[in-house]
Specification:
The chain is mostly helical. It is elongated. Strands 1-2 form a two-stranded antiparallel ribbon. The protein has three helices and two strands. It has one domain (8-85). Helix 1 (8-25) packs antiparallel against helix 3 (45-85).
């Protein structure tokens, strides 16, 4: 299966999309939806929403940072190869 490469523009668009999604999910409509006294496994729904949503957003940031780091290393390798060829 071929590895998909993210160009700088696509990665920047994804960052913006996930930032907007994070802001929306921490705003009034979503907080109001999950602000119920319904416990799930004995945990209030709003607390569970934060306990799942916060680590999920941290994980997405981690994946993006790994992708950026990998691209930076690849670009540095390409620059090193170009300077060696000259």
């Amino acid at each position: 299966m071929p590895e998909r490469k993210f160009t700088g523009l696509r990665l920047r668009e994804a960052w913006i999309l996930f930032f907007i999604l994070g802001v929306v999910m921490l705003n009034y409509p979503f907080l109001h939806i999950f602000n119920k006294m319904t416990p799930v496994f004995g945990i209030p729904l709003l607390v569970l929403y934060f306990m799942v949503g916060w680590p999920a957003s941290i994980f997405v940031i981690y994946l993006f940072s790994r992708t950026l780091d990998k691209e930076a290393r690849e670009q540095a390798g390409e620059k090193d190869e170009r300077t060696e060829q000259e």
